[in-house]
Amino acid sequence: MNSDDNKIRGTGVTKLSTGAFQGYFGGCPHCGESEGPHNVGRAHWLVCREHCVRWWIGENLFAAWRSETPEEWEKTRCWLSGFRMVDPVYGEDSNLGGEADGNGL
Q1: How crowded is residue 100: how many other Cβ atoms within 10 Å of its Cβ?
Q2: Whether pLDDT at 21 is above 60
Q3: Residue 58 forms part of a structural domain
Q4: pTM, whole model, 2 decimals?
Q5: I need a labelling partner for 40 at 20 to 30 A (CA). Which of 13, 47, 62, 81 fits?
Q6: Strand 53-59 vs strand 43-48: parallel, antiparallel, or unpaired?
């Protein structure tokens, strides 16, 4: 995706490097921010609270979901239902198709 498509370059793409996983899994199409992951079972989601959007990043990528309960997943699922699903944007600092950063992510 080029900068003309995502409309983020020059208006906040640096947020991709400060959001969850430094933008590896993308950022909000409005501001580039991301927070998470938030787990519903094996599924992992990132969100932007400011713009009330979410996007799925994969399943069973992180072990934390295994220590959560079905009740926690249901609470998270209900919370996430208030967010609109979007396709994230990626910046030049995202390593699409490459390895995750050195933090084991």
Answers
A1: 13
A2: yes
A3: yes
A4: 0.71
A5: 13
A6: antiparallel
